[in-house]
């Protein structure tokens, strides 16, 4: 079993983290002042609003915790700052590679174009990469509750940045039964342009959504996929290693996708050798870190260091990083392992 102190020091990879759910409270307060936005809340109330209740009534209540952060994320400078800070926080807890996701359409209130928005987030990430040597990539989210034309707009806007910071497309937001059909054309367009595809599915709705995300949208990874077991076809695709699961333990309890961690289906998936990684989903909204998530989930399945190494290797394989970056990430783990076996921690 992995000790929390070792987990904090291990090289880690985060594939599923939302920018707007991962802001520092103090930065939200500072940005509101700087931008002359009256949030009509005390500082304590702001903190409370940014964290969703430990158990929300639903995914929809959980999503309400994103309204406040979005108010202060409508300028290029604030996007750069918040992105930089998420990467900085991640680096400080031993993350060596992170795919950060966000929905450009949610940042257009002050008139920024999608391209300006995407450029600001890439710049924030590049600044952190330069300072800390962490590697990063951006996944653009299209919102399931918006018309498909916004998804197409997002895909078109991000196209020029593919390979320059942007790697993937995601569908996020409230999950309705059968949502994949609505986005068939847009996600096909994204695939043709060369985006990698990851889709939120099987979180608030059925395993059939996981199946349709794979079948109709060509998802290479599934965000959550809690209810994959409900669809034997979806389960087989994941079992055959065609598709990788991004598991977000604490978030799933908060949104009531599962009752508690002990009954989370990921335990059976893991035992059945399904490839997955653990993720925060939202660092602030879920009040968590990746080290905490690995500790929580790892404790339940009795994750050993060798198990973790295997999971890390699979995660590198499922990441949307360049081959050259993947090799560097593998080397980081080898170095850690070598030093650990010699009794010295790599810092
Ligand atoms: Zn998510």
TrEMBL record:
Alphabetically ordered keywords of this record: Hydrolase, Metal-binding, Zinc
The protein's Enzyme Commission number: 3.5.4.4
Keyword Methyltransferase: no
Residue span, Adenosine deaminase domain: 11-333
Cofactor dependence: Zn(2+)
InterPro entries named in the record: A_deaminase_dom, Ado/ade_deaminase, Metal_Hydrolase
Gene3D superfamilies linked to this entry: Metal-dependent hydrolases
Keyword check for Mitochondrion: no
Top-level taxon of the source organism: Bacteria
Top EC category: hydrolase
Annotated SUPFAM superfamilies: Metallo-dependent hydrolases
GO molecular function: hydrolase activity
Family recorded in the similarity comment: Belongs to the metallo-dependent hydrolases superfamily. Adenosine and AMP deaminases family.
Name the UniProt record assigns to this protein: adenosine deaminase
């Amino acid at each position: 079993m992995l000790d929390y102190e070792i987990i904090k020091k291990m090289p880690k990879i985060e594939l599923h983290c939302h920018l707007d759910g991962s802001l520092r409270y103090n930065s939200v307060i500072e940005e509101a002042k700087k931008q002359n936005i009256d949030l009509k809340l005390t500082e304590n109330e702001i903190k409370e609003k940014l964290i969703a209740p430990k158990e929300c009534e639903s995914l929809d209540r959980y999503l309400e915790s994103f309204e406040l952060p979005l108010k202060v994320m409508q300028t290029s400078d604030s996007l750069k700052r918040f992105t930089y800070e998420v990467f900085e926080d991640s680096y400080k807890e031993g993350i060596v590679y992170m795919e950060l996701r966000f929905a450009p359409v949610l940042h257009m209130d002050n008139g920024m174009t999608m391209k300006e928005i995407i450029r600001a987030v890439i710049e924030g990430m590049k600044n952190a990469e330069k300072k800390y040597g962490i590697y990063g990539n951006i996944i653009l989210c299209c919102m399931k509750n918006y018309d498909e034309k916004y998804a197409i707009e997002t895909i078109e806007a991000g196209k020029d940045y593919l390979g320059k910071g942007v790697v993937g497309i995601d569908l996020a937001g409230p999950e309705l039964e059968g949502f994949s059909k609505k986005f068939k054309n847009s996600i096909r367009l994204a695939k043709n342009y060369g985006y990698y595809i990851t889709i939120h599915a099987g979180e608030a709705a059925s395993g059939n959504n996981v199946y349709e995300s794979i079948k109709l949208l060509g998802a290479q990874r599934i965000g959550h996929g809690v209810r994959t077991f409900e669809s034997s076809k979806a389960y087989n695709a994941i079992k055959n290693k065609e598709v990788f699961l991004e598991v977000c333990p604490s978030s799933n309890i908060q949104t009531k996708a599962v009752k508690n961690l002990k009954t989370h289906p990921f335990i059976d998936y893991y035992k059945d050798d399904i490839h997955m990684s653990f993720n925060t989903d939202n660092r602030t909204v879920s009040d968590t870190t990746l080290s905490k998530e690995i500790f929580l989930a790892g404790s339940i399945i009795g994750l050993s260091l060798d198990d973790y190494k295997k999971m890390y290797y699979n995660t590198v394989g499922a990441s949307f990083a360049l081959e050259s970056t993947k090799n560097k990430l593998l080397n980081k783990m080898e170095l850690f392992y070598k030093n650990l076996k010699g009794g010295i921690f790599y810092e």
